[in-house]
Design brief:
Number of domains: 2
Shape: elongated
Helix content: 25-40%
Distance between the termini: 30 Å
Structural class: alpha/beta
Strand order of the largest sheet: 10-9-11-12-19-18-17-14-15
Low-confidence stretches: 1-21
CATH class of the largest domain: Alpha Beta
Number of strands: 19
CATH superfamily of the largest domain: Isochorismatase-like
CATH topology of the largest domain: Rossmann fold
Number of helices: 13
Mean pLDDT: 94
């Protein structure tokens, strides 16, 4: 049966507007009395020059709304991609609340539905924009698209959008194109206006899609701070004459509101991740090379916006070991094996201060912790984040050195740092003492009775060979359930993978596999992916 096609954007406005109404009225009253925007700007800094790995860092800033403008990019009434229509419509009520709240605080609102200016020829907000006197010194090429800025040359663009990024079901897309044509719209470019769900204040707002015009509005109204929101991040939001690149390279304090945007990305194209992960990858690219990002809750309160179909669990991968190169093996593993089902964040060790995990606060919003850390002690504030996560009963997946992650070998931590002395027993239920040293590959077999466990689904245990030394981990806690057993000649077998309940009741999985050569084996990668799904309750 052919799926139904929405009649218009207006018919698709969700009930989200109702949910925000009462709170937004009160918020807007308060906003009129407070022009300060207390923001948390998130960006990415390279762990070391040329490493290709990045810390996620946030810094608080207070912006004066009277020196701030919000540019709404291409929130069109119709679009050739039906799924883009659906996502834009779902996002619009929240976006409108952002605009109302910010407007009352004193921010300038610029509506920029590109190629739609004829519709607004007689609108006061359009005429107001046209009446702005152009500044004498316009930035070079501010009226043109900007496809790249020099900083981006240092990175690799993360998604393939050469097909235009449409992610529609083919049958639905054909029906949608036919409907657009019947309405007298060009199926390839059907937009004629901004969607009605976004209110335009005729007395205060501006309407423009012209880079020189918008720059002049910013300058004439003393707006040094700019917030970009709208669609689509990887195309218009980045590249338009009023987009992120132009604002950043010409000296504005510009940020992207990352939960009030969408991306034209088709999961059938590289890197073959979910649509929402594709958006995350573009946001990461922006945070690395273009500008910081913020979220709508920093203005409205509550929680950041999230699309209804974005059901991904959030996996935080924490890496701080130098023995087994998991800082090289885990990122591609995560992209290939977790990108379709999970939102993934990385925390890497500080490369100049051993006992520091910049960005560990991401655990406050994570659903699963995947840990690859070796003998680090942490400042109390960072250790408290890890304790809080685990004490809440959330799950953990540990590989290789994770069973001695936060304790030192027969020494006390330096002053100002904390260890977790009973870490292995408390979290994994193991008794790690040492390893047998380099030697033959570890032969692996399934533990008795473990055949039906979901982590072992589709796994041929005998085909996995442990490339790292065999860990001495026995005996396990009574609460632990062995899954895999490893053996080397003339030594007693050791449990090499098992599940347990942490001291705090959360799920835990541990495997002493995790050597860089283990990741070359598809069975091990599948085992680890299964463990993450099990921990997240998605097995």
């Amino acid at each position: 049966m052919q799926k139904s096609v929405p009649r218009s954007f207006a018919s698709m406005i969700t009930a989200a507007a109702v949910l925000f109404f009462i709170g937004s009225v009160m918020a807007n009253i308060a906003a009129a009395q407070d022009s300060s925007l207390k923001l948390q700007l998130r960006s990415r800094t390279e762990t070391a020059e040329g490493s290709g790995r990045f810390h996620t860092v946030t810094r608080p800033e207070t912006w004066n709304a009277n020196q701030t403008a919000i540019i709404v990019c291409d929130m069109w009434d119709y679009h050739h991609c039906l799924n883009a229509v659906r996502r834009g419509t779902e996002m619009a009520p929240r976006m409108n609340e952002v605009l109302k709240n910010s407007r009352e605080r004193g921010a300038v609102i610029i509506h920029a539905p590109s190629s739609c200016m004829a519709t607004y020829a007689d609108h006061a907000a359009r005429q107001r924009a046209q009446s702005i006197e152009r500044v004498d010194k316009l930035p070079l090429e501010i009226g043109k698209w900007c496809y790249r800025i020099p900083a981006e040359e240092r990175g690799k663009y993360p998604i393939d959008q050469t097909d235009g990024g449409e992610d529609d079901d083919p049958e639905e897309h054909a029906a949608w194109a036919k409907k657009l044509e019947s309405m007298g719209r060009n199926p390839k470019a059907p937009w004629k206006a901004q969607m009605d769900a976004l209110e335009i204040d005729a007395k205060r707002d501006f309407i423009s899609d012209n880079g020189e015009e918008i720059w002049s509005i910013l300058e004439r109204h003393n707006r040094k701070n700019v917030i970009l929101l709208g669609v689509h991040t990887n195309m218009c939001v980045l590249g338009r004459p009023f987009g992120l690149r132009q604002m950043a390279k010409n000296g504005k304090n510009v940020v992207l509101m990352r939960d009030m945007t969408d991306t034209m990305y088709n999961p059938q194209k590289s890197p073959f991740v979910s649509h929402f992960t594709g958006t995350d990858l573009i946001v990461e690219h922006i945070e690395k090379w273009v500008c910081p990002t913020i979220t709508s809750d920093q203005i409205l309160g509550g929680q950041p916006f999230r699309f209804e179909k974005d059901t991904r669990s959030h996996v935080a991968i924490v890496i701080a070991e130098q023995e087994y190169l998991t800082n090289e093996s885990l990122p591609p593993f995560a992209l290939d094996h977790l990108g379709k089902e999970f939102r993934v964040s990385f925390v890497f060790a500080n490369e100049t201060e051993r006992n520091d995990l910049p960005g560990i606060d991401v655990l406050n919003e994570a659903d699963v912790l995947l840990l690859s850390v070796r003998r680090r002690v942490l400042p109390p504030a960072q250790m408290s984040v890890i304790r809080k996560y685990l004490e809440s009963g959330k799950p953990i997946v540990g590989i290789r050195t994770a069973n001695h992650a936060f304790l030192l070998r027969k020494q006390d931590p330096p002053k100002g740092f904390e260890a977790w002395d009973n870490w292995d027993a408390d979290i994994f239920g193991g008794s790690y003492t040492n390893h047998y040293g380099a030697g033959p590959d570890v032969s692996i077999s399934m533990a008795s009775g473990a055949e039906s466990h979901p982590i072992l689904r589709g796994i041929d245990a005998a085909s996995i060979h442990g490339k790292g030394s065999l860990y001495m981990v026995n005996p396990l806690a009574r609460s632990a359930t062995p899954l895999l057993v490893g053996a080397i000649p003339e030594k007693e077998p050791e449990t090499i993978a098992w599940v347990n309940r942490t001291k705090f009741g959360g799920k835990s999985f541990y495997t002493s596999l995790g050597h860089v050569d283990d990741f070359a084996q598809s069975e091990f990668r599948q085992l680890l992916a299964n463990a993450v799904r099990w921990a997240a309750g998605r097995d």
